[in-house]
């Protein structure tokens, strides 16, 4: 028979003791020891793995915390910048409101009515009339006195006709002038009519056609020095005053019309660089806004001529 036992000998202070152990129990102890060893090894490996994972998680946590702090710093900086920007925008908005109010006053003064879709920049450009632009308008549109100014004897509007003795609408201004006083063109234009005009009662009449629908009439003349179809410049001599037609004495009948509508000539006689804006308030029959837009890029290079020429220049012009 096979011996299924083994002897365990234990030595201690009390002597030697021997125990007989069955081999099955021996195997059981062996397997249990191996199992426990495996458990210990697995546990150790797991602990090491978990420690490594915790270290990685801690590192990630530190990175996230650092990123969060950086985000907070950037957010604070952004909020500070936004606050500064908001403050600047409010200040700019206030400035724009003040500018818009001032611009509205200027637009009202010169008779401009801003369109609904016009930007502030466009409105500013409309009102920024340079001196050259002003000079251009004063060159192309009748302005200033056609004779040396000594006053008005009969104003624009309803009156009793001096020769017909009935109430009528006077379409022009009768300007005080002695016989054979030089008459000058008040704007660049073309001579539409130069001669006797019996139907109107103006006698010898000169009609100048200007740009943008304007015309000027010079009536009761004695002598005409221009011809129909002739181009004239502002300040050119065109005639001499007289007493022709239905007139009770030497004077100049002066009219300005805009697309056949009679305008008060007095506003245009007194229209100069010095009181440039006044006409926009007084004369409402003209769409000044569209006229200014149409002429904003036009410049007259030649300087405006002096309307009242010296005596030698008058003689040379008469020749």
Description:
The chain is an alpha+beta fold. Helices cover about 40% and strands about 25% of the residues. A hairpin with a 5-residue loop joins β8 and β9. α1 packs parallel to α2. The longest helix is centred in the N-terminal third of the chain and has 88 residues. It is rod-shaped. The C terminus is likely disordered.
Could you list some keywords that capture this structure?
319 residues; alpha+beta; Glucose Permease (Domain IIA); 2 domains; ten-stranded antiparallel β-sheet; two-stranded antiparallel sheet; 14 strands; 25% strand
Task: Please summarize what this structure is.
This protein has 319 residues and is of the alpha+beta class. It is built from seven helices and 14 strands.
Break the fold down into its secondary structure elements and pairings.
Layout lengths: L4 E8 L2 E8 H88 L9 H8 L3 H10 L11 E3 L2 E4 L6 E4 L2 E4 L5 E3 L4 E9 L5 E7 L4 E11 L6 E2 L4 E5 L9 E8 L2 E3 L1 H5 L8 H5 L5 H8 L15 H8 L1
Antiparallel strand pairs: 1-2, 3-6, 4-5, 6-13, 7-12, 8-9, 8-11, 9-10, 10-12, 10-13, 13-14
Predict the CATH topology of the largest domain: Glucose Permease (Domain IIA)
Number of E strands: 14
Low-confidence stretches: 303-319
In whole angstroms, the N-to-C terminal distance is 169 Å
CATH class of the largest domain: Mainly Beta
Category by helix and strand content: alpha+beta
Number of domains: 2
**CATH-defined superfamily of the largest domain:** Glucose Permease (Domain IIA)
Q: What is the average per-residue confidence, as pLDDT, rounded to a whole number?
A: 82
Number of helices: 7
Report Rg.
53 Å
Give the % helix: 40-55%
Binned strand content: 15-25%
**Could you spell the SSE succession in H and E letters?**
EEHHHEEEEEEEEEEEEHHHH
| Main sheet: strands, sense, barrel | 10 strands, antiparallel
Form type = rod-shaped
The CATH architecture of the largest domain comes to Distorted Sandwich
């Amino acid at each position: 028979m096979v011996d299924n036992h083994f002897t365990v000998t234990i030595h201690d202070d009390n002597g030697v003791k021997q125990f007989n152990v069955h081999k099955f129990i021996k195997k059981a102890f062996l397997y249990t020891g191996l199992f426990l060893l495996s458990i210990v090894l697995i546990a150790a490996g797991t602990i090491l793995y978990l420690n490594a994972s915790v270290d990685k998680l801690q590192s990630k946590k530190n990175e996230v915390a650092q990123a969060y702090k950086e985000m907070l710093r950037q957010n604070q900086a952004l909020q500070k910048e936004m606050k500064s920007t908001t403050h600047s925008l409010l200040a700019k908005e206030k400035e724009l409101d003040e500018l818009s109010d001032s611009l509205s006053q200027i637009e009202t003064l010169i008779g401009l009515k801003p369109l609904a879709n016009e930007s502030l920049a466009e409105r500013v450009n409309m009102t920024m009339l340079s001196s050259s632009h002003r000079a251009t308008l004063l060159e192309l549109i009748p302005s200033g006195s056609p004779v040396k100014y000594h006053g008005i004897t009969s104003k624009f509007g309803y009156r009793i006709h001096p020769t017909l003795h009935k109430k009528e609408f006077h379409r022009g201004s009768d300007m005080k002038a002695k016989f054979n006083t030089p008459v000058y063109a008040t704007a660049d234009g073309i001579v539409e009519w130069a001669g006797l005009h019996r139907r109107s009662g103006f006698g010898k009449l000169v009609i100048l056609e200007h740009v943008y629908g304007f015309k000027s009439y010079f009536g009761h003349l004695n002598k005409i020095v221009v011809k129909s179809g002739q181009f004239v410049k502002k300040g050119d001599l065109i005639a001499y005053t007289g007493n022709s037609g239905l007139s009770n004495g030497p004077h100049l009948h002066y009219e300005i019309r805009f697309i056949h509508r009679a305008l008060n000539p007095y506003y245009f006689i007194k229209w100069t660089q010095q009181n440039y804006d006044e006409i926009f308030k007084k004369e409402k029959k003209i769409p000044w806004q569209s006229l200014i837009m149409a002429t904003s890029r036009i410049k007259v290079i030649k300087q405006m001529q002096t309307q009242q020429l010296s005596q030698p220049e008058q003689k040379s012009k008469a020749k």
